Automatic annotation (TrEMBL):
Annotated Zn(2+) 1 binding sites: 13, 35, 38
UniProt record similarity statement: Belongs to the archaeal rpoM/eukaryotic RPA12/RPB9/RPC11 RNA polymerase family.
Descriptive protein name: DNA-directed RNA polymerase subunit
CC per GO annotation: nucleolus; RNA polymerase II, core complex
Residues reported in the UniProt entry to bind Zn(2+) 2: 84, 87, 109, 112
Pfam families assigned to the protein according to its UniProt record, in alphabetical order: Zn_ribbon_RPB9, Zn_ribbon_TFIIS
Function: DNA-dependent RNA polymerase catalyzes the transcription of DNA into RNA using the four ribonucleoside triphosphates as substrates.
Lineage start: Eukaryota, Viridiplantae, Chlorophyta, core chlorophytes, Trebouxiophyceae
Length: 120
């Protein structure tokens, strides 16, 4: 079975045949793979920087629940440079997402909870 070109690949030490683990080389500001057994290391190929990717698929119902709770999320950015189309309040929580139309900014009014989009 052939490996998929888009997925991350496991790397092994040429000296001890142990698994190489990703590590940051802070001095050189590079990603390297290091053997925990013998200390061998090699620079990561920039085209292969994805160490782990977790893609979660949500149903339409789950997405609706996620969108309802965003205005109470303290980790999301807020802006006072927009006006809610429903109540004209000037503060909203926002986040971006890729949609079929391209990149989209989603806003959620912190006063009335109205949601709207801005296509970037």
């Amino acid at each position: 079975m052939a490996a998929t070109p888009s997925g991350p690949k496991l790397r092994f030490c040429p000296e001890s045949n142990d698994l190489l683990y990703p590590k940051e080389d802070r001095e050189r500001k590079k990603l390297v793979f290091v053997c925990r057994n013998c200390g061998y290391q090699e620079d990561a190929d920039p085209s292969n920087w994805c160490v782990y990717r977790n893609e979660i698929q949500h149903s339409h119902r789950e997405r609706t629940v996620i969108l309802q709770d965003v205005r109470a999320d303290p980790t999301l950015p807020r802006t006072k440079d927009v006006h809610c189309p429903a109540c004209n309040h000037n503060e909203a929580v926002f986040f971006s997402a890729s949609t079929e139309e391209g990149m989209t900014l989603f806003f959620n009014c912190t006063s009335c909870g109205h949601r709207w989009r801005d296509y970037v």
